[in-house]
Amino acid sequence: MSGRRHSPRALIVISCVLCKNHVSTEPAIAERARAVIDWARRGGRKVAFVRHDGPEGDPLAPGEPGWPVWPALGQAEDEPTFAKSVRDAFSNPAFGDWVAGQGAGGVVIVGAQTDFCVAATVKGAIARGLGVTVVSDAHSTLDSASESAEQIIARHNGEFTKAGVNLVTTKALVGG
Question: Before 113, cis peptide (omega within 30)?
């Protein structure tokens, strides 16, 4: 682990939606995210899902087949979903209010896409004075023209660490 230590009280699951083209084809991403979600629930932490609402015609537009949160993540009925239309989840004031309402001095972040929504939400959380933990193997992205998804994830993990983020693996966080 690196960065400042904090006691995270809220878990943020970012844009883990059904759109198959939204994350790398790494099949274990949903399993690791689910393990972190289960860990959060066992510890009494609150879980929120953040869904990207794309524009009309986009695979992530409201009502499109790729728009709902992945059922494999097992979102509970009492766990809110917050919409966003830009990268930073904190752009939705209701989301920021929810995090503050949890008394959260820190947040744990998993999801997609690493280089867009995850990175922007990490910056948004830091800007609000929150401690941030990113689960290094539970966020994902797509290949770009110049980098593989794995390279993008590794680069961002390094950037997160330099920014003071507590970077942990799923195994280190949840045990086992």
Answer: yes
Give the whole-angstrom CA distance, residue 170 versus residue 172: 6
Q: What is the pLDDT of residues 53-110, one digit of tens each?
A: 888 988 777 887 777 777 778 889 999 999 888 889 999 999 999 999 988 889 999 9
Tell me the whole-structure pTM to 2 decimals: 0.87
Contacts of the segment 144-152: beta carbons below 8 A, 24+ positions apart = 144/115, 149/24, 149/26, 149/114, 150/24, 152/114, 152/115
Amino acid of residue 55: P
**Inter-residue contact 140 to 149 (CB < 8 Å):** yes
- Scan for tokens 């992530």, then name that residue: 60
Structural domain boundaries of the chain? 10-174
Is 10-174 a CATH 3.40.50.850 domain? yes
